[in-house]
Amino acid sequence: MASNVSDRPLIGVTTYLQRSQSGVWDVEAAFLPKVYLDGVTAGGGIPVLLAPQPLHDGVARAVIARLDGLLIAGGVDVDPARYGREAHVETDRPQPLRDDWDSALLEAAIETGTPFLAICRGAQVLNVLRGGTLHQHLPDVVGSVRYQPGGGEFAQVAVAVEPDSALHTIVGDSLVGDVYHHQAIDEVGTGLRVTARSDDGVVEAVELDGVPFGIAVQWHPEQNSEDVRLFDSLIAAAQEFAAGRTAQREVPA
User: Fold this and answer.
1) Selected catalytic residue, list 111, 220, 226, 250
2) pLDDT tens digits along 185-220
3) Which of 162, 165, 175, 243 is the most exposed place for a label (fewest CB within 10 A)?
4) CA 42-11-109 angle, 5° bins
5) Residue 253 pLDDT > 60
6) What is the pLDDT of residues 57-100, one digit of tens each?
7) Where are the beta strands (DSSP E) in the chain?
8) What is the DSSP letter of 222?
9) C-alpha closest to that of 117 among 176, 73, 165, 180
10) Is residue 83 within 8 Å of 128, Cβ to Cβ?
11) SS3 sequence, 53-115?
């Protein structure tokens, strides 16, 4: 963890944008479960909330240019029209603004080499951005609701990690992930490599080749405060990225 505030990287974290109630107010609001922020701060980063907004004048690229790392958080299902499918009856109502925003931020991060970690929905956004598709309702595929039992209760699923992967250097051969997803990666997008699966073959992690740090997981690491290895690794990559940028600026003309 960085010892000085000036050494702590800025990590942009995407948010929800939907109806919310607080006291007497019932309004559209940008918000995010605190556990995501706890993961970033535990790793030594400074979280900056990135609310969905219109993509005018290259705003996503401008935002990424000011950050040292990016975290794409979980949330509602990606619009199946983005990967050429009709909506399943169990698929969430589309949120085009958030789909556009998350996708644009990821695209800008990839272009600039900005380290990123994508979680649950974030992994699905990345896969669709790279031309992949999704299973819209896993019970139709695996025959059970083991990945999303409902009621806001996370399930625990054993995940096997591929040995030749960045994820393996972080978490080792396997882990038990906290999961809450009824969708998952189907056809894998261009440049992505599957680096973890559950015991029935469901993709639980992918990595993007050709970038310094680009990991997407289907489970929710923010739910386990005892294991912040993924957050630590994102922060370390963001520090290295920031240091490289500083060094470039300091090179004499």
Assistant:
1) 220
2) 999 999 999 999 999 999 999 999 999 999 999 999
3) 243
4) 140
5) no
6) 899 999 999 999 999 999 999 999 999 999 999 999 999 999 99
7) 10-14, 16-22, 25-31, 46-50, 69-72, 116-119, 134-135, 155-161, 174-179, 184-185, 192-198, 203-208, 214-217
8) G
9) 73
10) yes
11) CCCHHHHHHHHHHCCCEEEECCCCCCCHHHHCCCCCCCCCCCCHHHHHHHHHHHHHHHHHCCC
Residue that the structure tokens 């995501």 belong to? 36
Give 11's Cβ-side CA count (13 Å radius): 33
Tokens of 69: 């790392």
**Helix and strand counts by DSSP (H, E) for the chain:** 7, 13
Q: Give CA–CA dist 212/33, Å, rounded.
A: 27
Q: Which of 137, 222, 226, 240 is catalytic?
A: 222
Please say if 222 is a catalytic residue: yes
Q: How far apart are CA 58 and CA 91, in angstroms?
A: 30
| Catalytic residue (choose from 120, 135, 181, 204) | 120
